[in-house]
Design a protein that fits this description.
Number of helices: 3
Number of strands: 7
Number of domains: 1
Structural class: alpha+beta
Oligomer: single chain
Strand content: 25-35%
Largest sheet: 5 strands, mixed
Helix content: 10-25%
Strand order of the largest sheet: 2-1-7-4-3
Order of helices and strands: EEHEEEEEHH
Length: 135
């Protein structure tokens, strides 16, 4: 399972893999809940769950309780692409709870830790320069 976290201040996103032993602590969490960043190595950070995707790529909806899949009649939002005004579609979506079938958890940083994100995740250009200097 991986966690994708975004930073509203800088507009950057990054992703990290969750260790197998830490996946159990995420099970049962719902969209909107806040989790500790220490689960993925972001000490002192707090992350709010904003969305989920399962192994088949089905997005989750906050209106559907539990971990089940359902065909929902949707007019917009996650799972609907390019909806026109008044048009609704029946789409397969997953519930709002993290389960063993969840492959990606989307989060938003709500509280920052002692280290900046630039220290934890250097930009690609800076990383390339450091690699070139090391040679």
């Amino acid at each position: 399972m991986r966690i994708v976290f975004s930073d509203k201040k800088s507009g950057r996103t990054a992703q990290l893999e969750v260790a197998k032993e830490n996946e159990g602590s995420l099970m049962g969490k719902k969209i909107g809940e806040v989790i500790e960043g220490a689960l993925v190595g972001l000490e002192g950070f707090k992350l709010q769950i904003t969305g989920l995707s399962d192994k088949m790529g089905s997005p989750s909806r906050s209106e559907i309780d539990g971990t089940r899949k359902a065909y929902a009649f949707l007019g917009g939002g996650p799972g609907i692409v390019g909806a026109k005004k008044g048009m609704r579609r029946r789409k397969l979506v997953r519930g709002n709870t993290i389960s063993a079938d969840t492959s990606q958890v989307n989060t938003l940083i709500t509280e920052y830790g002692p280290k900046s994100l630039d220290e934890l995740f250097p930009k690609k250009e800076a990383a390339k320069e450091q690699a070139a200097e090391a040679k």
